[in-house]
Amino acid sequence: MIDRRTLLRGAPLAAAALVAPALGQSYGDWPNRPIRAIIPWPPGGSTDVLARLVCEQLGTRLGQNFVLENRPGAGGNIGMDAIAKSAPDGYTQGPATIANLSIAQFLYAKLPFDPEKDFSVISMHWELPNVLVAPAQFCPANTAQEFIAWAKSRPNGVSFGSPGVGTTAHLSGSMFCDRQKIDGQHVPFRGAAQIIPAMLSGDLTFALDNLASYMPVIQEGRMKAFAVTSPERWPSLPQIPTMAEAGIPDFVVTSWCTWVGPAGIPRPIVDRVNAALKDVAADPAMQARFLQTGAKCVWSTPEAASAYAASQRPMLKEMVRISGARME
Fold first, then answer.
1. Residue 56's pLDDT is what?
2. What is the CATH number of the domain that holds 206?
3. What CATH code is carried by the domain that includes residue 294?
4. SS3 at position 76
5. Mean pLDDT across the chain, nearest whole number?
6. pLDDT of residue 71
7. CA 173 vs CA 75, 116, 180, 253: distances in Å
8. Are 114 and 164 members of one domain?
9. In percent, how much of the chain has pLDDT > 90?
């Protein structure tokens, strides 16, 4: 797995298709009209909020408005297909997550796009861990090891929720139960807005879901957070141990997002957007805003972002196998 230093300085490995401009062609006037940003998820969720934050900042730095278009459905595949099939002129961009670039090809029997060939990957955008949580009212455990022992002792096993089949929450929960020999039943929901009430009412035992969605209920004390799946403790919750510190080794699973366009965007345009994203990630105010949501605003070269997505695929392919997930 690529470490953070490699990610940030760029790896000289295979990148997404980034076609050079024709000899002598200039892109100095780009952008000279608004840019469409296709967001492959419904409005209001954490991923949508983070994309909107970045679009706001990119618009300021590039001097053109970003017109946001939510195109949810099929686990993000509808929106991603729309990006892939748009003109490679830099006027259609959008976020692509770990699910879109590194999980979908192992989960779906058929995709309308090729995650490895059909996008110009411009930069990393954000990263956040999953967090192992259980409702304080119904779970007596106070540590991850206590939770594992308690879960194993339950005669009817436990249930865990996720925002859908094949999400990192589903795959993480399945791998956690498989490795710890816990009898766990996956229950898919539409999102954390449904998972959290189910947990707080006692209808669901735990989740290993994206931290961003659980920050408020953790901070309020309604959820117990046992461990995060990042390689280091998370800045906004420094008191919560990593999975390794909690006695669960080899369990680094972060959710991440890249910024992409269709394959073939001229390199000068890619470089200009990449430079703007670098400025965004270097802005302390933006870092603070992202951390408030449970995420880190990050940046990388196009090559490093593509290499990182590729490096994640073997692990995620195995996680899909363990989960038994399959989508048509």
1. 95
2. 3.40.190.10
3. 3.40.190.150
4. helix
5. 90
6. 93
7. 18, 26, 11, 11
8. no
9. 80
Give the torsion sign (CA, 203, 208, 214, 219): positive
Is the per-residue pLDDT at 197 higher than 50?
A: yes
In a shared domain, residues 207 and 71 = no
Query: pTM for the complete prediction?
Result: 0.85
Between CA 267 and CA 271 the distance in angstroms is: 6
52-62 burial, b for 16+ CB within 10 Å, e for fewer? bbbbebbbebb
What local confidence, expressed as pLDDT, does residue 173 receive?
A: 97
Q: Which of 177, 158, 175, 179 lies closest to 166 in space, CA to CA?
A: 175
For residue 176, the surrounding DSSP H or E stretch is helix 168-180
* Contact (CB, 8 A) for 224 and 242: no
Domain count, the chain: 2
Dihedral (Cα; 96, 97, 103, 105), 10-degree rounding: 0
Q: How far apart, in whole angstroms, are the C-alpha atoms of residue 214 and residue 221? A: 11
Classify residue 187: in a domain, yes or no. Answer: yes
Q: pLDDT grade, residue 292 (50/70/90)?
A: confident
Indicate whether 15 and 93 sit together in one domain. yes
Let me know: does 35 contact 69? Beta carbons within 8 Å. Answer: no
Q: How far apart are CA 99 and CA 282, in angstroms?
A: 26
Is the domain of 85 the same as that of 32? yes
DSSP conformation letters of 118-168 = SEEEEEEEEEEEEEEEEETTT----SHHHHHHHHHH-TT-EEEEESSTTSH
* 239 assigned to some structural domain: no
Spacing of C-alpha 214 from chain mean position:
15
Question: Using an 8 Å Cβ cutoff, are 262 and 92 in contact?
Answer: yes
DSSP assignment letter at 266 = -
Does position 5 have pLDDT exceeding 70, yes or no? no
